[in-house]
From TrEMBL:
Domain DUF4439: residue ranges: 9-143
CDD domains: Ferritin_like
Name of the protein: DUF4439 domain-containing protein
Gene3D superfamilies to which the protein is assigned, alphabetical: 1.20.1260.10
Higher taxonomy: Bacteria, Bacillati, Actinomycetota, Actinomycetes, Micromonosporales
UniProt xrefs under Pfam families: DUF4439
Organism the protein comes from: Catellatospora coxensis
Domain of life: Bacteria
InterPro entries: DUF4439 (IPR029447), Ferritin-like (IPR012347), Ferritin-like_SF (IPR009078)
Length: 144
């Protein structure tokens, strides 16, 4: 595995840590359906984080540790801003997985593509719930 791909997997792990933190913050501001969606999202990010920790350990590569806290990109004070944060987080996660695709092959590439697709779909779901238009983006995770 290339050094560049290892760095991109480390970046993906950092994004997963950040997503877990954000989901814990935004879930309390959502209605029951939104909380259920947030729990599912947080659980998926925890699963991906754990898989990345194992993968990096197997590669004998350093694994970035989660920070004690993360600065949110904007104040999250109600349901609308919580939904906006969820979409923002998934876009960020999609961006890191998208970057990793370029350097991956075989089974590693397949796992990265699954993670990328999941973040893109989750981001769309959150944008729909937040009534953000457009709900879909042409290239999820691409910096505009």
């Amino acid at each position: 595995m290339s050094e560049k791909l290892v760095e991109r997997l480390q970046a993906a792990l950092s994004a997963e840590h950040s997503a877990i933190f954000a989901y814990a913050r935004l879930g309390v501001l959502l209605d029951k359906a939104g909380q259920k969606e947030a729990r599912a999202g947080e659980e998926m990010h925890r699963t991906r984080r754990d898989a990345l920790l194992v993968q990096l350990a197997e590669l004998k590569a350093a694994a970035p540790v989660a920070q004690a806290g993360y600065a949110l990109p904007f104040p999250v004070t109600d349901k609308a801003t919580a939904l906006k944060l969820a979409a923002y987080v998934e876009d960020g996660v999609a961006s890191t997985w998208r970057a990793a695709l370029a350097d991956a092959e075989g089974e590693v590439r397949r796992r990265i593509l699954v993670a990328y697709t999941d973040a893109a779909v989750r981001g769309t779901r959150w944008r729909r719930l937040a009534e953000i238009v457009p709900a879909t983006v042409p290239y999820p995770g691409r910096k505009t």
